[in-house]
Amino acid sequence: MITFYVFVFGLVFVVYERLVLSPLSKIPGPSLAAATRLVLMYHEFTRTRKQWIHELHLRYGPVVRIAPDEVSFATWDAVKEIYVFEGSGYEKTNFYKLFDNYGTMCMFSATEKGPHGERKKIFADRYTKSYIMQPEVVNGIQDLATEFVKKCTENAGKAVDIYVYLHCYALDGTTLHLFDPLGTHTLTDAGELVKMKELAFRDDLVDSYKEYYLFDLLPSEIAPLLANYLRRPPRPRRIATQVMNTARRTDVASHTVLSKLLEAKLPTKSIASEMLDHTIAGHDTTGDGLCFLMHELSLPRSAAAQEKLHRELAENPGAPIDDLPYLDAVVREGLRRFSPIPMSLPRRVPKGGRRIGDAFVPEGTIVGCQAHTLHRLDESVFPDPEAFIPERWLEPEGAMERNQLFFAFSTGGRGCIGKHLALLEMKLLLREVYSGYRTRVAPEMTASMELDDQIIVSRPKGQQCWIIFDEVA
Ligand code: HEM
Questions:
Q1: Is 49 exposed, middle or buried (0-12, 13-18, 19+ CB in 10 A)?
Q2: Is residue 226 within 8 Å of residue 200, measured between CB atoms?
Q3: Between 20 and 30 A from 104 (CA), which of 1, 21, 89, 326?
Q4: 151 C-alpha to center of ligand 1: Å?
Q5: How does pLDDT run across 295-335, given as a tens digit for each residue?
Q6: Phi, psi of 301 (to 5 degrees)
Q7: What is the rounded CA–CA span in Å between residue 61 and residue 50?
């Protein structure tokens, strides 16, 4: 009986501490979520985390407490404080351990600054804008864009599932940059299609959260014992094997990321872990982003945008890819409206706590911003936020505020290293399509294009997107 009373008293004290004594108690948010993490976990396991947080921001404003020890922010001040200032010390949380490959860390999964920086400096030059714009890279991606259009138009007037071919394009483009000529050829070789399918159709959200909470919440002596009974998040077996075998090869082109990893003489497992991470990071995001964008452009409501894009491309056939302002605006608006990584990017508040905007946040608290909300909440920056309006990016007024809140690639030292490659891939593909074709959604297209949350990316829920390509006369 005494044990029972001690337990109840302890529980009451914990809740009282969280709701009244904690410095976070001054931050708005639902009381139940402040009292127990179970509320947030419920939304994570039911794939509603991003939307739930967004609705809380609409209700409570730009700072919301979403769990006893977690706060979501949606302002530029918070982005600057958490992600931009070098040396501010907001490290990644253990959530990122989920992204180790072959049991070995990669740059993305490194939680601390030191190991992250060490790894990044090995190959950072391969992803700079000037490097990406070299003919070796541009020509390779251009060939894939040409192949994509050929694939989509070989049966004139027939609907094509671009979800499949866009993910093939993104996978082949990424592995080309990573380890040409040993990359995938899923666009041209039907036998390799299964590699793309393993990646684009896997669903590891529930297993990943189970693994995360097991290791995060339980003592380190117990968690590994229980892990034996847990179904591990499924790994893309075929691509993981190809990457591991490739990590041992030295016959790759000198302009690839692999050539730099080999120069650094890293252990084979570390090289493979790094390359598998980039392969997955470049495949899902670019494939999903392009799919949402082409679907939107193919809807009757975007006819004017498609027409404007076609006109710009037709009038400037040989223009450098970055000298096409409407194309740039279309891509930005696509990434704003349908961010491939719309979820919070969690970081831990460093020693001593920090002031973020007006809120004091004690050390150890998990803080983060999500692109989905940054791209919508402040309607003075993004009026009519649910509408697809490329023109908003062409107005000089408010450009600084728009750029500050644009978070599709995150920002700062841990922002997306593949951003320039992704933008090149997106722009070359759209130019190839809309220079010569109009697209429309096929009448038989019934699959849902709702954003379906995975562990960090969001993809089209129905995982199909049937589009018809009509040649421009
Ligand atoms: C439209 C396409 C893409 C989007 C929207 C995107 C978005 C992002 C975001 C938001 C992050 C930060 C995640 C976090 O902090 O948790 C990130 C990191 C990263 N991305 Fe991308 N990405 C894209 C394409 C690519 C490509 C093509 C590659 C490489 C081939 C790539 C490789 C990476 C890597 C390696 C990181 C980790 C960076 C670090 O830890 O320093 N991404 N990406």
A1: buried
A2: no
A3: 89
A4: 27
A5: 999 999 999 999 999 999 999 998 999 999 999 999 999 99
A6: -65, -15
A7: 15
Q: Is the peptide bond before 385 cis (omega within 30 degrees of 0)?
A: no
Instruction: Compute the distance from residue 183 Cα to the ligand 1 centre, in Å.
Output: 19
Nearest residue (CA) to ligand 1, atom 3: 285
- Find all residues with CB under 8 Å of 308, minimum gap 6, and list them: 326, 390
Cα 66 to the chain's mean position, in Å? 21
Structure-derived torsion over alpha carbons of residues 212, 214, 219, 223, reported in degrees to the nearest 10: -110
CATH class of 69-471: mainly alpha
Tokens of 108: 């993305």
Cβ of residue 29 lying under 6 Å from some atom of ligand 1: no
Within 8 A by CB and 6+ apart from 125, the residues are: 131, 260
CA distances from 399 to 77, 240, 268, 331, 377 (A): 17, 42, 45, 16, 16
What is the distance, to the nearest Å, from the Cα of residue 123 to the centroid of all Cα atoms in its chain?
A: 20
Written as one letter, the residue type at 147 is: E
Which amino acid would we find at residue 175?
Answer: T
Give the CA diameter of the chain. 85
Alpha helices per DSSP H over 231-352: 237-246, 257-263, 268-298, 303-315, 325-337
Candidates 257, 260, 233; CA nearest to 100 is: 233
Q: What is the pLDDT of residues 196-253, one digit of tens each?
A: 999 999 888 998 999 899 887 777 777 667 766 666 666 788 999 999 999 989 999 9
Distance CA 74, CA 72 (A): 7
**Is 465 annotated for ligand binding?**
no
User: Does any ligand 1 atom lie closer than 6 A to the CB of residue 79?
Assistant: no
Nearest to 429 by CA among 141, 158, 188, 162: 141
Is this model's pTM higher than 0.90 or not?
yes
Rounded-to-integer distance, Cα 38 and Cα 190, Å: 45
Beta pairing, strands 458-460 & 451-453? antiparallel
Pair 156, 148: CB distance under 8 Å: no
SS3 233: coil
Q: Which residue matches tokens 């896997």?
A: 202
DSSP 18: I
Name residue 453's amino acid.
D
Nearest residue CA, atom 7 of ligand 1? 409
DSSP class of 341: S
Phi and psi at residue 347, to the nearest 5°:
-135, 155
Q: Give the tokens for residue 125.
A: 């030059």
Locus of tokens 């947030």: 40
Q: Are 294 and 337 in contact (CB under 8 A)?
A: no
